[in-house]
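SAMPLE LOG
Freezer: B-3
Tube label: C17
Construct: single chain, 246 aa
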Amino acid sequence: MNPVFDFTRLGFFIRRQLYMNMGALWISLAAVVGAMLIISALFAYFNPQDTDTLLGLRNMYLVVFMIGGYMFTSNVYHEMNSPQKSFTFLTLPVSATERLVGAWIISSPVYIVVYAACMALLGFISCAIAKQPDYFPALFDRPVLICVQVFLVTQTLFFLGACTFKGYNFLKTLLTIIVVGMALAAYSGGLGYLLFGNRGVKVGPTGEFKETAEFIFTKVIPFIFWYLLAPFLLVVSYFKLKERQV
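STRUCTURE (predicted):
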C-alpha cells in the first residue's frame, strides 16, 4: 500500500463506508427524528405561542445531537471491531491516514450537516404548530454554534475510543473519561494540599495565587481545549489505527 495520502482513495473509502453503514444509519436517524417529532408536535400544540417551549425543544435537539454524535462516533469503526469483518476492513487498499480522515469526516462534518438539516426541519415544524413561524430564525443563535464547536472538540475523545476499544466503545470511553477526570482531580487536589495546605497559603479567588489561577483558567485551559486537545487526540487515534493494522 502506498503510504502517500491520496484524495481519490479517500473518496472511495468514504463512499464505501457510507454505503456499508447507510441502512443502519438511516434507520437510527428515522427512529430518533420520529420520536423527537412526536414530542415536539405535542409540546408545541399544547403550548401555542410560547417561545420558552420552543427554546426548550431546541435544547432537547442539542442534547440529542451531542449524545447521538458520541454514540455514532464510537461505532464508526465497528467493522474493525467485528471478528467477521475486521480482516476485510484492515486489508482495504487505504492507508491509516485515509482511514482516520475518512472516518472523522463521516462522524463529524457529515453528521453535523445531516443532523442540522433534521434539526432545522423539526424546529420549523414546531414553530408552525406553535403558531410562531417568525421565531424560527431565533432558534439558531450563538449557543447553537458554541454547542457545535464543543462537539467538534469533545467528539475526538469518542473517536479515540472507537480506535482503542473492541466492543461497547461508547460505554468504555465514557467510563474512561470519568475515571481519568476523577484521578486528575484527586491528583491535583493532593498535590495542592502537599505544596500549600500546611503553609497557610491561600489559593482561592482572594489568595496569593489569584492572578496565576485566573491566567490558567481563562487563558491556558481554554487554549488547550480549543486548539490542542482535538489535534492531539486525532494523532493518538492515528497511532492506534496503525497498531490495529499490524
